Amino acid sequence: MLWLLLTLRILSGVLECEGKTVRGVLSSERAKEEKGQHLTSFWFYGEPSLIQYKFNATVTTDGRLYLYRDEDWRDAAEKLTCFDKISAARLSFDLVAVEANFTFSSHSPEIWHVVYAELSTCQMETFVGQPNTLQYELKLFNPDQEGNPFDHFSVEERGLLLFYQFVVLVYFILACIYGPQLWQTICKEGPMYLVLKLLSVATSLQFTAALFNMLHYQRYSKDGEGSPFLLNLSEMLEVLSALGMLYMLLNVAMGWTLAGSKATKLSNLKNNPMVTILVLGLGAVQAVLALWEQFQSSEHQTYHAHRSAVGMSLVVLRLVLALVFGGAIYHTMSKERSSLRRDFYLSFFKSCLLWFLSYPVIVVVALIFPAHLRNKLHKSI
Fold it and tell me: At 126, phi and psi to the nearest 5?
């Protein structure tokens, strides 16, 4: 069931993930029904910011593009009349040509919502004839380092490509330095070799996820769309990596691979099925919560917006896992007679506790930063 949910998440993300090259259909009926058709939103910053549109036809429309700041859009959504909602827009542009550019200034980083409406949108009369439906392509740009409006990245995404390039480079250098020695240790099948094997698998999944993110943002920087498939695949790999880490940590906490040579065999876990059930159960809950949060969102998000109840459930679950891990370590230490192993468990507990608590701590710390910086902080987890 878990694999099915993960697969559905990848496939659905291909359809729903929006980059900053947006394609769709301008609909008179939808604009009238919603009191303005919401096209997309974008974190603009600097001067000049650019919006470029193009119609896939030789005809134009009498409609306009309306731009709302985020706080204005939230207030406008509560207005009762269509005229009040449309008049709340800060800027508007006529769509008089098949293709055109609009520039404006955004002096501070803020979200702008792009909405389409026509002259007939707020009229009470029904449509006479066939309502307008027009395919469009919308591109949104921020100024680059030279001040030219050619940057597809919003302010909350700016710098992520460089971050993932650095992460992939670090992984590659560490793999070249420690990879051969680690492989020899695993092949010898000595003490702790299964722990090293599971840790290597989890790290490899993290590296692959970072590589897919880098490829996505590399393409995104050129076309404003990227690869939604790679982005969702990287999320799935991160979930699987967390499951592998959780599986390894809880088993080591209960003395696996430290109680003798027989404990180094994976089949020995059958003698204590509660460990496997606990790890898979908690891991499945965490994966389902992550998927549920993404399905709740109208647009795909590359990080979990912890403003929702589902997102906060992920934080609480991570704290619960830390308590389970601490209880397992304490139970194992109470039965351990060797002082050397007790010292190892204590050091192991301190190190792994950082892994469990890094997620909740960064989420809490991110709350003191502006909203456009939180995505970058969450990406550092």
Answer: -80, 165
